[in-house]
Amino acid sequence: MILARNTPTWLYLAKRSQPTATSEGRVIALRRAYHDESFGFRRPRQFTMPDCTSTSLYPLTPDNASWSSDTPAELRNRAVNAPLLRYADALRTHGHRAASIDPLDLLRRERVPALEPERYGLPDPNAVYDTSGILWTGRESESNTQWALRDITEFLNVVYVGRIAYEYMDLPSRTERLWFAHLLESQSSTSMLHCNAQRKQRIHQLIACSEVLDTFLQAKFPNLKRYGLEGGESMLPALDALIGEAARAGITRVVLAMPHRGRLNLLTGLLGYDPAALFHKIKGGAEWSVQGGQFAGDVLSHLVASPTLNYDGKEIKVSLLPNPSHLEAVNPVALGKARAKQYTLLKALEKGGKGAEGCMLGDKVMCIQLHGDASFTGQGIVMETLGLSNLPHYTSGGSVHIVVNNNIGYTTPASSARSSLYCSDVAKMINCPVLHVNGDYPEDVVRAVEIAFKYRNYFRKDVVIDLLVYRRWYVTRFQTRHLTYDPHYACTHSSFRGHNELDEPSFTQPLMYQKIRARRSVPALYEDKLVKEGTLEEDTAASVCASCRATLTDALAASASYSPPLVKMEGQWNATQIDDNDVKMVWPGSPEAQTFDTGVDAEVLREVGSASVSVPDGFEIHPRLQRHVKSRLAALEKGEGIDWATAEAMAFGSLMLGGCDVRIAGQDVGRGTFSHRHAMLVDQKTEGVIVPLNHAMSRATGKLELANSSLSEEAVLGFEYGASWERPDFLPIWEAQFGDFFNGAQVIIDTFISSAETKWAKQSGIVLLLPHGLDGAGPEHSSSRIERMLQLTNDAYSPQPNTNVNMHVVYPTTPAQYFHLLRRQLKRNYRKPLVVAAPKGLLRLAAASSRLVDMLPGTKFHPVIPDNTPTNTAKRVILMSGKLYYDLVKERTARNLDEHVAIIRIEELAPFPFSELTDVLKLYTSNGTTRVEWMWVQEEPKNQGAWGHVKDRLEVVLRALGGDGNVVYVGRREDAVPAPGVGETYRSQQKAVMDGAFSGFSTTA
Ligand SMILES: Cc1ncc(C[n+]2csc(CCOP(=O)(O)OP(=O)(O)O)c2C)c(N)n1
């Protein structure tokens, strides 16, 4: 049957449903209608129409509002031919259940009665029906709307029960369903959208070279775990098509996240990675060289590349991010990086005077996420990241997900890996369309990718491609066409490839692997097809493989003399503007690494402080917040009594005045968990929101983004971390609601924040605010597990020249200290993650407030805060960190011990402040003799808190001062929980800590 092709375009549909607007104008208006209050981005409207209960494309009640776009004749025809309509909708809805999408035919397929026309009272294949308003084909040509049922059945089966299967009919938005139906049915041929001979040859080249790489590596390095792509080669044309489509659509940057599977194939096959560098790495060499840093490097399957590719003259930069082995952990990082990149472009547009107009989320940047089937279903971070995809402050304009679904996770079959039929079912939670495609047919794969991209680019929403492939386990001459041409590739039955190349999958999947063994490889099958249809000469195909092999052979030889490149600050990291000064960014361990003055002029502080509580005329803030405004203004006026929230606002605002952007993300960050921040104010009449620092500081070129987040720790922290990689003039902060909850994001902290600099030479200035402190709240809500953060640092046990510690861990006790810490993050010519044990009770404690003079030029963060106790009368020196300081001071005064007990605060625990502490403690020694007793006091249990970290280091300092290094520990005993849940127990333990700290003195000492 020849189908009519003169079908309407999507613009035509848009025009029909709103005839008064010009087609294009309406589409643009729809796309730009939703203004994302999160920062000037425009993002597309959601297109969700209120017909979520219906799964039909065409609601059957004539008075339903969405009928308005249909002609009366179409409406009448639907009523008359309702059975046909039901049949067509059934194919659209259930076609995927019978589609030939699985190369191994392992999916449990049952007969699908819903696909049989008889079920709808349509028994006669010769009966002719009017298809107008029911099928999207030939609809403009009246003569073409009369179709025999046989043709209709064939048509619908070609579209919906082929090698691509679609799940779009459960999307709640009718517009999206309509969009799919129109696109698929009006371009229903199984042939590709634009698959000409040249395109086919490119596909062939990509998959053939992928196979050559796998066989080459297998022959040369048989014991190497390379996570080859054998069986899944279609992943390469899929990515090629996706990136190409993106480039042609005007996207200039792709942020790409992927796991191990086929990474080397992608790197060398599409991303231009130098195979000599690859072989150098395989042979044990480093991927980078770094001056002045401790560089550990990473394994082969985490290598990166960021080439600029060119498609039809359009350049597109693809950044393949480094990732840890922890599957899927990189997804939110990529999303955060993609959004931050869009913001960088938006800022550049604004600087160029173009404003936010014309910059919609996803216009220029796209995030691509590759997944494995087992990890996509199993890892919770997938759900968390998908959950971010369409939220204000988090959306990046739609990611394209490709699940490279080889039906196996290590040795776990799909039946044990998921409770759902498809590995992609988790994506249903965000109403995301899914396209399943048979990976044995690369042209269909490309078509599926093109459709997916069109959807993403139109609706700026996520879309999933489930690429069904398999994992081949060995290669025979029968399976691969050109193996016979080179003795290197005469692989035998003993060269196994399971999950990795050292696995024997038929221990566990004998039947599956029998099937795989009986198959020819994807490149061989495709080559046969092209040769048969005359698109490719057999000799040309052989020479493609031969030339790939020659390149690899040369590269292997060249790898002997390959030397890895020196790590460079990428792109704009070379130089940045901080406080309107040009700063050349350097490697943290280098001799040029330094911190600049973090103090700020009093007038600026006052300007920022008052802007932080200023609201426009007519904006009605909550009556209780009037007090908050007044007390902030009064403190600024007096220059004292400055609390944490004010200090924080002044740090943010002063950085913004210097051109830097600040983003604070987490649950309830706008108001603040402890109702202290109020950086975002809500009009009590309208619920309109303002961020005073953005609104009232017209001369600031930086902005503050308050990203109240979803209730996720891992994905949200990953997202912020990804954003931190983008620009050095950006302060990203993640605040845990209570410090305890960071452990939900432990993977991000272990594998990115604490280790990225050492593994991947990546810097980050991210700040983690982790509210910490025992205050009777029970086992949770009490501890940010500071001991774990300290254990993650590579802080030296003794003073070292030029230490470069991976993360800085602080427990500040005054707002001024916090102010300097925040500013220090950007007022350096390098970037470091900062973990802050953040206050809860101190937020409003008068004794813990600061003076303006503590923030003026020349002032700075003090890693150690000495005490005023006269050194000649002191008998004990309490060393401690954090909020217990204020309890200790109160207790000391109550016990009349101000002259005898000094309390010294260690505010920076890592890097341990050896020299600052030595300077303070030496005041309590004379001629090498110690005159005091040294004590460490903490409220946390002995196996927790900072004790484990400081003990050895304190001993080093004290021994150097001539003592025996003994430090008495006072604190809670070892415990399985951070704090008790019983109030009485908590209070008696707290009292015991105080008694211990001041033991041995009579109360009138
Ligand atoms: C979080 C996590 N758990 C376990 C592993 C160990 N592991 C590495 S690969 C793999 C199987 C992954 O299967 P799948 O996602 O289907 O990808 P495939 O390797 O089959 O391509 C497992 C369990 C890991 N890397 N990360």
List the ligand species. thiamine diphosphate
| Nearest-integer average pLDDT | 87
The rounded distance between the terminal residues' Cα atoms is: 104 Å
Structural class: alpha/beta
Strand content: 5-15%
The total count of helices amounts to 31
What's this entry about, in short?
35% of the residues lie in helices and 14% in strands. With 1005 residues, it is an alpha/beta fold. The structure holds thiamine diphosphate (TPP).
Question: Which terms summarize this structure?
Answer:
alpha/beta, binds thiamine diphosphate, disordered N terminus, 1005 residues, eight-stranded mixed β-sheet, 31 helices, seven-stranded mixed β-sheet, 32 strands, globular
Can you describe what's shown?
The chain is globular, with a radius of gyration of 32 Å. It contains 31 helices and 32 strands. The protein has 1005 residues and is α/β, with parallel strands linked by helices. α13 packs across α23. β13, α15 and β14 form a beta-alpha-beta unit. It starts with 9 loop residues before the first helix and ends in an 8-residue tail after the last helix. The strands form nine sheets. An eight-stranded mixed beta sheet has the order 5-13-14-10-9-6-8-7, with helices on both faces. It has a seven-stranded mixed beta sheet with strand order 20-17-21-22-24-23-28, with helices on both faces. It has a five-stranded mixed beta sheet with strand order 25-27-26-31-32, sandwiched between helices. The site of thiamine diphosphate has 14 residues, from α12 and β11.
